[in-house]
Design a protein that fits this description.
Blueprint: H1 10-14, E1 51-52, E2 84-87, E3 102-104, H2 115-123, E4 144-145, E5 159-160, E6 168-169, H3 172-181, E7 207-208, H4 210-213
Parallel strand pairs: 2-5
Antiparallel strand pairs: 1-4, 2-3, 6-7
């Protein structure tokens, strides 16, 4: 047994096979991070904007030991941003959704962090890409090329009011209320019949998150989308138009 675990890093690579963790009973995700924009390893030198000096891939999000214990974090190897995010208001469009939806994280520790907080731990631009809880092997740091903080269009910031709302419950009550109020998006599909998108949580209280439309482990479609945008196919998974 003493020879089985010599470093923290070996299992981070093995974790590549385990990142199919299902949250809330949804379908298992396909694993295919290698070579994509989410691959920050040294193997992407010359092809990715951001890459590191480690050959490990999974370590930038996951660790098999001493992981972040915040809810909804699948062996998460990062802290969560200590930010409050303002999301899309329902002012004249999402009548069934409460105004000023927000994802709240206090000092990086959330009692009820959402799946979207995982994405935002890189994509809000406040935490360094190489800011990890556990580094590969016996190292205590990882060097990045291209910058330590995500920039450009990939940096969503903390004001998400111009982005699709996240962290709200999508259930039968939402569908009924939205249709009754005649909102701009009136005509939502039954949440139990959705395909090619994913809700997170138990039926009846499952929520829409960033990962509802994006699969971080599958780059088959542009921007890691779960469905193609041809003919607005992704949108039509939920919306009836």
């Amino acid at each position: 047994m003493k020879n089985l675990i010599k470093t923290k890093g070996w299992a981070a690579g093995a974790l590549f096979l385990l990142v199919t963790l299902s949250v809330g009973g949804g379908a298992l995700a396909a694993v295919g991070v290698s070579g994509t924009k989410h691959d920050l390893s040294s193997a992407t030198s010359g092809t990715n904007t951001y890459y590191s000096n480690t050959t490990e891939i999974c370590v930038f999000c996951h660790t098999p030991h001493n992981a972040n214990e915040t809810p909804n974090t699948p062996l998460w190897n990062r802290a969560l941003s200590g930010e409050t995010y303002t999301t899309y208001s329902n002012a004249n469009s999402l009548d069934a959704v409460p105004d000023a939806l927000s994802i709240t994280v206090t000092a990086g520790v959330a009692a009820a962090a959402s799946v979207s907080n995982l994405c935002l731990s890189c994509h809000d631009g406040t935490l360094a890409l190489n800011s990890l809880l556990n580094y590969p092997g016996s190292t205590t740091s990882v060097t990045m090329t291209g910058g330590n903080f995500i920039t450009g269009a990939r940096n969503l910031g903390t004001n998400l009011s111009n982005d699709h709302p996240v962290n709200f419950v999508y259930n039968d009550a939402l569908v009924t209320a939205d249709t009754a109020t005649g909102g701009a998006v009136a005509g939502l599909k039954d949440p139990d019949t959705l395909t090619n998108v994913r809700l997170f949580g138990a039926s009846g209280s499952a929520t829409v998150q960033c990962a509802s439309c994006h699969n971080p482990h599958d780059a088959t479609n542009t921007s890691f989308l779960r469905d193609t945008m041809a003919g607005s196919a992704l949108c039509l998974n939920c919306h009836i138009k």
